UniProtKB/TrEMBL annotation:
Subunit structure and binding partners: The Tat system comprises two distinct complexes: a TatABC complex, containing multiple copies of TatA, TatB and TatC subunits, and a separate TatA complex, containing only TatA subunits. Substrates initially bind to the TatABC complex, which probably triggers association of the separate TatA complex to form the active translocon.
Family: Belongs to the TatC family.
Predominant location category: membrane
Organism: Rothia koreensis
HAMAP family, per the entry: TatC (MF_00902)
Cellular compartment(s): Cell membrane; Membrane
Residues passing through the membrane, by range: 28-47, 81-104, 116-144, 164-190, 202-220, 226-247
Name this polypeptide is given: Sec-independent protein translocase protein TatC
Keyword Ribosomal protein among record annotations: no
Gene that produces this protein: tatC
């Protein structure tokens, strides 16, 4: 007997609101468990990572002769920062798991072909996520030094540890996620939810958003640094559009052949359902 939410029993993978919430909860729990377990491993990397994160502040004190340091202004502040950094490390280490859970939630009751898409999504998304983190990591010292350069002469930079770590983590993680967005667009297009031309129409807004993101990530007067951040994001975005449009063209040809030969409108059916109708 076909399961209620299997492809045989439920070809369109329809769910009631309660089932959607249950599915969302299960996916979040799996992603959270993986992240927490990875965060435990992150504790072992805390001290070297913390030294690398705070290196720009040490450079300010050394290169500019200005007092600059990270302050833990509370009894439990050092422990809170350790937890925060370890969770960020865990989020990076567990990225294959939560990226897969994200895709699995968007496409429940997967076909075999769609499961291959899910694996491909993870295989492409994880390197891009790590690439975004790496680029943000390279630009982080410049961003910190540029922002603290506005400190008036004779003044000092005593930065609260939680504030500084929050700034660095948000900078790095947000840039990593932004590199995954083009892959998500291709995935949504593969599902038939949006066409490449529809995405292309919003290209002006995308350029503006990417420029703002690059400006916030690499503030300062160095235009080339901003360009180095914008270029890979824009290349990925327009590459995603090209893939979507190619996929749309391929799908349209396939639909036209099915309608012409068998009268099957594959816009309303999946590949397997179309084959079933043809077999009848």
């Amino acid at each position: 007997m076909a399961s209620k939410y299997s492809r045989k029993g439920n070809p369109q993978a329809q769910m009631a609101l309660r089932e959607h919430l249950r599915e969302f909860r299960n996916r979040v729990i799996k992603a959270a468990i993986a992240t927490v377990l990875a965060a435990v491993a992150g504790f072992f990397f805390y001290y070297p990572v913390m030294r690398a994160i705070t290196a720009p502040i040490a450079d300010i004190a050394q290169d500019h002769g200005r007092h600059a340091s990270i302050n833990f202004n509370g009894v439990a502040s050092a422990f809170d920062v350790m937890v925060q950094v370890s969770l960020a490390i865990g989020l990076v280490l567990a990225s294959p798991v939560w990226l897969y859970q994200l895709w699995a939630y968007i496409t429940p009751a997967l076909h075999k072909k769609e499961k291959l898409y899910a694996v491909s999504f993870v295989c492409v998304s994880v390197p891009l996520f790590l690439l975004g983190i790496w680029i943000a990591w390279l630009c982080m010292p410049t961003a910190v030094k540029t922002l603290t350069a506005f400190t008036p002469d004779g003044q000092s930079n005593f930065i609260e540890a939680k504030t500084y770590i929050s700034f660095v983590v948000k900078l790095i993680i947000s840039f990593g996620i932004s590199f995954v967005i083009p892959v998500a667009l291709v995935g949504v297009n593969m599902m038939g939810l949006i066409r490449g031309r529809t995405i292309l129409k919003s290209w002006r807004w995308v350029v503006v958003v990417v420029a703002l993101l690059a400006a916030m990530t690499a503030p300062g007067t160095d235009v080339m640094t901003m360009f180095y951040l914008m270029a890979p994001l824009l290349i990925l975005f327009f590459l995603a559009i090209a893939i979507c449009m190619f996929n749309d063209k391929r799908r349209d040809k396939k639909n036209a052949k099915l309608v012409e030969s068998y009268g099957v409108d594959s816009h309303q059916t999946t590949d397997e359902e179309g084959l079933e109708q043809i077999g009848r």
